[in-house]
Amino acid sequence: MSQVLVTGGTGFLGTHLCRKLRDQGHELVVLNSRNCDLTKQGSLEALQPRRYDLVFHLAAWTQAGDFCLHHPGEQWVINQQINTNVLAWWSAVQPQAKLVFIGTSCAYAPDAPLVEENYMDGEPIDSLYTYAMTKRMLYQGARALAKQYDLRWLSVVPSTLYGPGYHTDGRQMHFIFDLVRKIIRGKELGDPVVLWGDGHQKREIVYVDDFVDAMLALVPGVDNELVNLGAGEETSIRSFVDAICEIVGYDPARVQYDTARYVGARSKCLDVAKAQRLVPGYLKTSLAEGLDRTIAWFFQEQAYLR
Fold first, then answer.
1. For 28-62, how does the pLDDT look when each residue is reduced to its tens digit (9 = 90+)?
2. The NAD-dependent epimerase/dehydratase domain covers which part of the protein (predicted)?
3. pLDDT at 66
4. Alpha helix positions (H), the chain
């Protein structure tokens, strides 16, 4: 049994990770914005003293959609505060712990292959630039501290995660959940289904439990490396719409596309050759099966009403 600290432990990824860690018998301390303000220096030192084997750093101040367009300054300050405080505490107070933290696919420059060696090269997309750079700085901070103090870390870069249990607290949803919610509301409530962009932009998604299992498989044997954990293939928004509509029972011809709205990157697909070498067969859930489970959860929890 390991002693494990998880920041951002009540978010979408955090909830699935903590459930898996508890199932494996680990003892957890789970942090969120209500019980520990990571923007405050000394917040981690104020916790009950404990020696951790693993620290999973998931906490970040961001949302999906066009959130990053409207909060670049705040994102820089808040995320730098969070990451600096976690890194400083790790190196000074918990140097025996392995730090596992989340990167972002938007840190990659859009005009180069999304392979790990390119993570720090080039310019990220302008609309996500600030958030991307805070993730790059987190990565560099871990590398710098590990080099000076002989520490261990692992960074994993996901594509968009999906599955049951997504937050429905009023924050903007990642695109796949927004598609599901709008199409179910169109079917059940008669709402118009209006999507941002022309539908030809492409996205990559990976089932959250597959991601968690792969990340945990990497932890014991992969030190001081960055690893992409995505699906390795992308799908157009219109193809996602067709698949969701078939499960929900909604006519995709009724879906409207608003080409004047923000769409982000037109295409974004991680190179996952490294992950496939390190964790063969980690993509266990097909897109059809994953969407079916996600949609069933939306109906069961009536999440489309929130």
1. 999 998 999 999 999 999 888 899 999 999 999 88
2. 4-230
3. 72
4. 12-23, 67-70, 72-93, 129-149, 175-189, 208-218, 237-248, 273-278, 287-300
